Amino acid sequence: MTEIFVFLAAPLTLAILLVGIHSYLGLHVLERDVIFVDISLSQVAALGGVISLFFTDGKGEGSLGLLFSLGLCLLVALILSLLRHYEKKVSQEALIGMTYALASGSLILVMDHLPHATEHLKEALVGNILFVTWPMVFETFVIYLLIGAIHFVFRKQFWACSKGQIKSPLWDFFFYLLFGVVITFSTHHAGVLVVFSILVVPASFAKRMVDGLFKRLMLAWGFGLVGILIAFLFSYVGDYPAGAAIVTTLTAIFFAFLFVKLLLERKQQAF
């Protein structure tokens, strides 16, 4: 039993870090009404990591993969932030969707020329969170802590921009720049679908259940942490992939609560 806790300590710590920063960023994303920006940038980051395999003979991404992912992700983040202000005839969500389609198609084309393409595709989607190491966790913690501190210092500007109270290409770019860094590190360890679920599901749950930023943030953190713990337990007991378990557990719990919430609201309206 002790060996199990030792084995899961690093992955669980990383998952808690993911919930911590992504639940907060998810509230920003919902406020901006750009729900799929996360999964689009995650796919871009995954594409960058796969491209790096051509320079490592397909032996793993490593630091070079992280560099490729970060560079490509930040470039796309810059383009999206600029298009938000200068492209008025096409919705931001449509541009983000096309970005996802482009990155997905490119990812398949690139992997078609790599050995073990199926394994690379699976890792890009749901990651390999069970095999993260403490150095990876510490590196991620430092990055997230720094970005969290920047968000705290400039929280008024970021929230004003997200809520549409001010229109500033500079603050938009700064937001997407930091967002791209978080997404790159998260996707590198956890995969596209896991990152998307942790970003959107807890924040959506909190926004549906309570009002007020502080209450929503607390509830999103609580929902995410409980969901992650259940997912790891489910993964261990059933011997399922942890990434897929996280995605399934979080979304299943969300829909269960939403169904109950709607029934209660309908019952109250009846009276």
The ordered string of helix (H) and strand (E) elements is HHHHHHHHHHH
Form type: globular
CATH superfamily: ABC transporter involved in vitamin B12 uptake, BtuC
Which fold name fills CATH's third level, the topology? ABC transporter involved in vitamin B12 uptake, BtuC
- Terminus-to-terminus distance: 52 Å
CATH class reads: Mainly Alpha
| Percentage beta strand | under 5%
Mean pLDDT over all positions: 84
Tally of DSSP helical segments: 11
Total DSSP E strands: 0
Largest sheet, strands/sense/barrel:
none
Coarse structural class? mainly alpha
Whole-number count of domains: 1
Percent of residues in helices: over 70%
The CATH architecture = Orthogonal Bundle
Alpha-carbon Rg, integer: 19 Å
Low-confidence segments, given as residue ranges, are: none
Account of the 3D structure:
This protein has 271 residues and is an all-alpha fold. It has a single domain, classed as ABC transporter involved in vitamin B12 uptake, BtuC, CATH 1.10.3470. It is built from eleven helices and no strands. It has helices at residues 2-32, 37-52, 62-86, 92-111, 117-126, 134-153, 155-162, 169-190, 192-209, 213-238, 242-270. The model has no long low-confidence stretch (mean pLDDT 84).
Question: What structural keywords apply?
Answer:
271 residues, ABC transporter involved in vitamin B12 uptake, BtuC, single chain, mainly alpha
Provide the fold topology:
Layout: H1 2-32, H2 37-52, H3 62-86, H4 92-111, H5 117-126, H6 134-153, H7 155-162, H8 169-190, H9 192-209, H10 213-238, H11 242-270
Helix pairs in contact: 1-6, 1-7, 1-8, 1-9, 1-10, 2-3, 2-4, 2-8, 2-9, 3-4, 3-8, 6-8, 8-9, 9-10, 9-11, 10-11
